[in-house]
Amino acid sequence: MANTKITNPELFNLGANNTAATQLPVMTTAQRIAMNAVPTSNIDYLVVAGGGGGARSAFTTGGAYGGGGGAGEYLYKTAQTITAGGSGYTVTVGDGGNAGISGVSATNGGNSVFIDTTLGGGYGGTSNDSTYSPGGSGGSGGGSGINGSTVYAGGSSTATSPGLGNAGGASTSIVSTSGAGGGGGAGTAGSNGTSSTGGNGGTGVQNSITSTATFYAGGGGGGSYNNNNVGSGGSGVGGNANARAAGSPGASNTGSGGGGGSYSGSAHTDGASGGSGIVILRYPTADIASYTATGLTPTETTDGTDTVLSFTTVGTGTISFTSSTPTGTISTGEMIFNSTTDKVEYFDGTKWYGITYEVAAETPYNNVLYTGSGNTTSGQSITGVGFKPDLVWFKSTGTTYNNVLYDSVSGVNSAISSNLSDGAWANYNRFESFDSDGFTIEADNNADLWKIDRISQPYVAWCFKAGGAAVANTDGNIASQVSANAAGGFSIVKWSGNDTTGGTIGHGLSSTPELTIIKKTSATANWQVSLNASVTGVEGYMNLDANAALYTTYPLYYTSSNSTVLSSNGTSTGTRVYNNQSANYIAYCFHSVPGYSKVGSYTGTGSNMTVNVGFEPAFVMIKNTTSSASWHIFDNKRTAANPSTEALFPNESSAAADYNTVFEFTSTGFNNKVTSTSLNSNGSKYVYLTFA
């Protein structure tokens, strides 16, 4: 959180809707009075268009079997700003597309609307009784039909980022027993039909905006000949094609495509209609005093501190919001302090203004992705971090390489791995420099597990900002070198042990560390993650390089017992002692900073649960303290869209593991939907470290 001075001598307009400030000296951040301003709130919303209809199996020489309907476009956004008052927002729930029946072709699903417009799914290709065509395009493309003499391409997706849609499957054979293509889903494209099988509909996407994990936007299955294999609808919500029968419709309020028609043994059968769309809104209950819905009536539920509104009836209406009434008063010209941005502001009767020469806070964390160059003569510079990091933690996401850590206090030639008990690898020239907006790595295509620039391999780098160059610290009776970001709640501490009983080491922070990661760098020894009793209820530690539960047998081997020093038992030679004579150590110390970082704990429920940390996380590290289980890290860069599905493991060299949409970031914390021992076992206690 380095301070950046604003040098413009003019007042600058912060806008009437800036709400994150404090009236000196008594109000909290959330209590800023937005006098005469238009209030706003953050909202999550899911919008799914209607699914396309499945095509009819037509009468024609050689047979013509109907393609599955494409799913409607899927759109999910979090922490979006809405404005209270005014005329409100249009809400439209699109109907599912019509089924292909005798003499009438299938149709696209209807568009759904809330702020953004989503596109209805494409209809299945071919066929009424006399006309044959490719699959129709839409949010996801419809699957193509087959008429016995011509193969057709599947319909294309016309959805654009950040909307989700995929192409429909194609018909790939012209024999009479051929199958039609499956409709595209929001998750994957529809499968192609073959000479004997109808294509499956593309998979949908699972979402838990209502707190219940539900699949949306699955594609419809493609029809086939007589009793041959027919296509299944995607993710259980897309409509199936049925042998010797009409297709099944897409599930209502999922935007899924309808199943295509098949040959019945003596006649051709109809396709099925697409499933209707849906619009779901979720917002903090405390932000909105009331809402008014006209034309459409939502189903209202609550989930923790949030309100959830589900619009399921096909049609168009509006919704407007009334913000919660602020308390207190403020007069024209009165000043307040904005603790979120470290700015002093004043109110002119209409708008809030910042005052000259303010300081702006800098976040202590960011993460970046890059691909290894494998260059044997020069490395590469990685930018986009936004600051000069002091700790960079590397992990390949695609294969089995070690976690590798470099910090500015140990120096660029000292590497350690969180999944190994090895001491530091000195003069290990893989890392070149910490830069103003990132870092530079050396040429590295070596065939070992410490590589951080292996050719074509994907990497994530978790970057933490301490205080730059280390300075001497004499707060404890053991001298230390410290780089401390006191405002950000993070410091790096280096020292040499002296075997003194009651040894103490200054950590440079203004508050007691809640979580401290320690490693003996001069010899082989387990990593130790020391936890303050304020987090877990008891002093204890865990090993970062292992999966064991919390140890409390030796609580004084290394504790964070006060605001200035760390305490170490120094007389034993055991591996858990961090003051051995002439041994070298490094520690990474963390404490919570509202709005930026949080060290905390939760008790697992074995079902969906929400953890509130007070901000939207970019990084979350979790460990079960009750049972043996791997450490898990999630971040906001490695998965293209929420939910965050891929975990990495500090105690393992493994590649990323896909948790299939069971963990997602929210505007105020994270939703934990997995029921495994690692993350959410009923009754188990978990500790986490998270950064905004």
Mean pLDDT: 79
What is the count of helical runs? Answer: 1
Give the structural class.
mainly beta
Portion in strands = 25-35%
Shape: elongated
Please list the strands of the largest sheet in the order they lie side by side: 28-29-30-37-32-33-34
**Terminal CA distance:** 12 Å
| Rounded radius of gyration (Å) | 29 Å
- Report the sheet with the most strands, covering strand number, pairing sense and barrel closure: 7 strands, antiparallel
- Contiguous runs where pLDDT drops below 50 for at least 5 residues: 1-38, 356-361, 555-560, 570-576
Description:
The chain is mostly beta strands. The protein has 5 domains: 1-39 and 326-361, no CATH class; 47-324, no CATH class; 365-464, no CATH class; 471-590, no CATH class; 597-691, no CATH class. Helix content is 1%, strand content 31%. It is built from 1 helix and 46 strands. It has a 7-stranded antiparallel β-sheet with strand order 28-29-30-37-32-33-34. The longest helix is centred in the last third of the chain and has 4 residues, at 533-536. It starts with a strand and ends with a strand.
Summarize the structure.
The protein has 692 residues and is mainly beta. It contains one helix and 46 strands. Residues 1-38, 356-361, 555-560 and 570-576 have low confidence and may be disordered.
List keywords for this structure.
mainly beta; 5 domains; seven-stranded antiparallel beta sheet; five-stranded antiparallel beta sheet; elongated
